[in-house]
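Researcher: Here's my situation. A collaborator sent me these components and asked whether they could plausibly form a single complex. I don't have experimental data yet, so a predicted model of the whole assembly would be a useful starting point for our discussion.
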Amino acid sequence: MVANKTTLKSVFLENRVLLLKITIHLMSLLPLVALYLLAFDDQLGADPVKEVIHFTGMGGFNLLLLSLLIMPLAKKYRQAYLLQVRRLLGLYSFTYAVCHLLSFLAFEVQFDLTLFFNEIIDRPYITVGVGAFIILLSLAFTSLNSLKRSMGKSWQKLHNWVYLAVLLIALHYFWSVKSGLFDPGMYAVITVFLLSLRREKFKRWFKK
Amino acid sequence: MLIKTKKNYQLSENEVTAEPVYHDRRQVLKKMGYLGAGTLLAQSASANPLDFFSNKPDKVFAQRALSFQPAGESSQIWTPEAKVTTHNNFYEFGTNKSDPVENAQGFNVNPWQLSISGEVDKPYTLGYDDLFTRFDLEERIYRLRCVEAWSMVIPWIGFSLAEVIKKAAPNSRAKYVAFETLYDPKQMPGQASRRLGGGVQYPYVEGLRIDEAMNPLTLLSVGLYGKTLPAQNGAPIRLVVPWKYGFKSIKSIVSIKLVEKKPPTSWNILAANEYGFYANVNPEVDHPRWSQASERRITSGGLFARNRIATLPFNGYGEDVADMYKNMDLKVNY
């Protein structure tokens, strides 16, 4: 019995990164697939467009916050293996952001490109959202290991922009609601909290 | 008059999915999304992971059929009843569009008292039954344009507000009409909690100028789709002002008061730079945060419905109402 347990535990420990990755894949992909299937079929409330845009927006934000939680967790509990799933979370956050923006273009403004670009320029909350998207886009493009190696130190510099991106997303959410600032307020608090865990790092930047 | 030809994506009403199925499917996604990317914080009180394990049948708000003068033929595609009754801004029952249908089913509207008072010679009060018997009921098919840039076409049942006001014999000081929604935090969770109620100051209040109130288009509605109003649509009686943004059409009214001075209005109190007193539908004046030049008409059809249409001045009712504003700068008086 004892031997059996140990074996099971060790199998689990050896494969924990793989298991964690499979979990992330399932929990990120399944809702996204279900979302679009239901929306195409008009089974997603009265206004499937709004549902799709909100769901992908919140999903992307949640995934980015999770990815920012990894480093503090790994440090505090000395679980370095967690760092191996950070990129996957970041890439899924980007995937949700792509769906969010493309759904706005395709289903909300319905390919009225003039309206699309006017809204980006005229509406501050959309402007900051697009700003965050551009940052996430460049981070996603440079996430390949080979690129990371060839970029050397500038890779880390570029990827530090994620802190600005998450702040812009928090602002984007805050500005986008009609009233009721509780939820966006909570998200802003979580965002600032996750960034505050990195205050030593930020202090070092300013000392230089 | 808006002439619309039926497109292939615009299904007729009998092609709409039955409501129970429609609610169920939505729940499935909520549950999947909860653990995954959907929500760190539950978006609404009902998005609870334990919902998955309890399938207790909800109370259902009772509706009954009404007899009324039906509207004539209309070329407009109606928004399916299942959408009219599940996509509501009624912050007294929560700020998400699907909150009111979930939270308002236990709403008790009988007995009800609607008082008509203020600058009138004959103030009076209507009880619940009076709402359906004192005035001739007629059906009117109106476009409803929300300030959030979506719209619906809804077959309302009701009577002109003008009839109700005339009966009270307003005096010469009656320059405006002030409306008030029921205040009952025990029944309305949004009034009991600032978070659920979206920070709106309750009771919800609205107002019209007297000429707007007396315009024959202005309707007091007690029903839709042939039946009494569902709770989430503002039972037992609500206002419908079709040339103004939807937030003017105050729900579950307990007081209609004729007053001399312009009354305060709820969304104007909350954000004066975004929501004016007049709130006439106007494609020329954008909301600070989005364009009002076009709207998405909610009918049938899923994500691929090509439903973005141009917004018309006064929501297409200019012929009947534009004269009331001819000497006003509508960019200032938004």
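Model: Some features of this prediction you could bring to your collaborator: Chain B touches chain A through 54 residues (CB under 8 Å). The first strand of chain B starts at residue 113 and ends at 118.
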